[in-house]
Write a structure and sequence with these properties.
153 residues; mainly alpha; two-stranded antiparallel sheet
Length: 153
């Protein structure tokens, strides 16, 4: 049973505002700008070969940062084969960079480190995207919270 008081008119809007802030101020995950060490491992090649491999790895990492993370956001699995967005400018790096085996190699590396916390940065900000699909967003938020609470990553 509810009792009406004079301050009820103030409590309901404040509670609604607090709920709106709780729902809309969320973390956003982005791939780190700097390439993780696990993405590139220097082999026993010569110094010039290692330098070329590192530049190729950087190019593929930049492709992941610029193109892949927007199609496959944090927490979503990557497909087994590299998408069309995962590519580099092979003219600048030579024929080794355009080799499909090289592209597949760096895609497998990205898949290996995709779920690592060291691969992602978390920034908090306002996110109003939930307003377009409130039910779907509520379900996603509940899933994220249960994963966070119970450790299912």
């Amino acid at each position: 049973m509810f009792f009406r008081h004079g301050w009820d008119k103030l409590i309901y809007p404040v509670a609604a505002l607090l709920l709106l802030i709780l729902i809309s101020y969320r973390p956003k995950y982005h791939l780190r700008e700097d390439m993780p060490p696990a993405f590139f491992s220097a082999g026993s090649a010569s110094a010039s070969q290692r330098d070329l491999e590192k530049r190729i790895a950087w190019a593929y990492w930049e492709s992941a940062v610029m193109d892949v993370q927007w199609k496959y956001p944090h927490g979503r699995p990557l497909p087994p084969d590299p998408p069309l967005e995962f590519r580099i400018n092979a003219q600048a790096l030579g024929p080794t960079a355009s080799d499909p085996a090289t592209r597949q190699f760096y895609w497998r590396r990205l898949v290996q480190i995709w779920y690592s916390p060291d691969t992602w940065t978390r920034d908090y900000g306002w996110d109003w995207s939930w307003t377009s699909d409130p039910l779907g967003s509520t379900g996603q938020w509940l899933k994220e919270q249960t994963d966070r609470l119970f450790g299912a990553y």
